[in-house]
Design a protein that fits this description.
Its cofactor is [4Fe-4S] cluster. Pfam families: Radical_SAM. It comes from Sulfurimonas sediminis. Keywords: 4Fe-4S, Chaperone, Cytoplasm, Heme, Iron, Iron-sulfur, Metal-binding, S-adenosyl-L-methionine. By secondary structure, the protein is an alpha/beta fold. The protein has two domains: 242 residues, Alpha-Beta Barrel (TIM Barrel), CATH 3.20.20; 64 residues, no CATH class. It contains twelve helices and 15 strands. The chain has a nine-stranded mixed beta sheet, with helices on both faces. The radius of gyration is 20 Å and the shape is globular.
């Protein structure tokens, strides 16, 4: 079982961000963390959690580093009995707010993996994206995390932005890989509804040849690609758990949980959530929903597709793809090695 915890507070709203986050609700922090604890207590009972059954915890956002470690203490006190030995516990952080003191506090609580929202080491690009940190802050944050004791450190990078060149992206990769990290998440800039970029669609400018070059460049430095956006000498167990269709608790505004074929959606408004964190909408998936999701997810990552979940027509199409060397078959599982074609392959199989 996995646990996702959503922290919705941010110092500033990035131009591309469509996540549930707030820059003007900091006065709700204590009440929000109390509501989180209340929901987690409820979910642990709903999921019939037993001691040492939680494999991973991921604290995302928003910006988890805007909340001081002391406010996380009761959350960790609650979860600790349920954590497996050596459970992966990740927290996202922004370089400007992840001070050495914050990193030490989270490390002492049990966080053993940090993911920094670096996005770029180019000053101009950071300004375009409305990021609140400088390139040097990212460098310092990674070094501070390593000094504190974190062995698993990840960076987020954004590509396909207007103005991106091979030289700019090469410098980003070179700088990132000069730091003590073992994971990179590389995301194409997407224009989402409700963001500052919504009326500026030209800000997203993906060039397939540049994307392929970027992916190869990262892999050539020893960071193997294990999902369309993720590379590393270390593979995030939390990410893999989602793709393996494991059950997960989703706590906080805008979070999503899954138990069997049921999905759970807490309230998305922070004030409403604080008032009633147990008001959670449910959605029941069909077996066909699950099967299709497994196909699409499996082709986007190293998990692959168990050929037994394919119907007769899909197996015939899979044989065509196998013959054309678009996918591979090993131990009864189909694997896709070009993740940029993942959705096209999935649509070909299932349409």
């Amino acid at each position: 079982m996995l646990v996702y915890i959503h922290i919705p507070f941010c110092d500033s709203k990035c131009s591309y961000c469509a996540f549930n986050s707030y820059v003007d609700k900091f006065h709700f922090k204590e009440n929000y963390m109390y509501a989180l604890k209340k929901q987690l207590q409820y979910e642990l009972k709903r999921f019939q959690a037993k001691k040492e059954t939680i494999e991973t915890v991921f604290i995302g956002g928003g910006t988890p580093s805007t909340v001081v470690p002391q406010l996380y203490e009761e959350i960790f006190d609650l979860l600790n009995p349920y954590l497996m030995k050596n459970a992966e516990i990740t927290s996202e952080a922004n370089p400007n707010s992840a001070t050495k003191e914050w990193l030490e506090g989270m490390y002492n609580l049990g966080v053993n993996r940090i993911s920094f929202g670096t996005q770029s080491f180019d000053k101009k690009k950071l300004k375009i994206l409305n990021r609140a940190h400088t390139p040097q802050m990212s460098v310092d944050a990674v070094h501070n995390a390593a000094a504190v004791g974190f062995e698993n450190i990840s960076l987020d990078l954004i590509y396909a932005t207007l103005g991106d060149t091979k030289e700019l992206l090469a410098k980003d990769i070179q700088t990132a890989l000069s730091l003590p990290i073992n994971h990179i998440s590389a995301y194409a800039l997407m224009i989402e509804e409700g963001t500052a970029f919504e009326n500026r669609p030209h800000m997203s400018n993906e060039q397939l040849s540049l994307t392929k070059w970027l992916f190869k460049e990262i892999q050539d430095h020893g960071f193997s690609q294990y999902e369309i956006s993720n590379f590393g000498s270390y593979q995030s167990l939390h990410n893999l758990g989602y793709w393996q269709y494991k059950d997960y608790i989703g706590a906080g505004v805008g979070a999503v949980g899954k138990l069997g074929l049921t999905r759970f959606y807490p309230l998305t408004d922070i004030e409403a959530y604080i008032s009633d964190p147990l008001s959670i909408r449910q959605e029941t998936l069909t077996l066909e929903d699950k099967r299709l999701e497994q196909i699409f997810l499996g082709l986007r990552c190293v998990i692959g597709i168990d050929q037994d979940i394919l119907n007769t027509q899909e197996r015939k199409k899979a044989e065509i793809l196998l013959h054309e060397h678009k996918i591979k078959l090993k131990n009864n599982t189909f694997y896709n090695e070009d993740y940029l074609l993942a959705d096209e392959i999935a649509l070909f199989l299932t349409s």
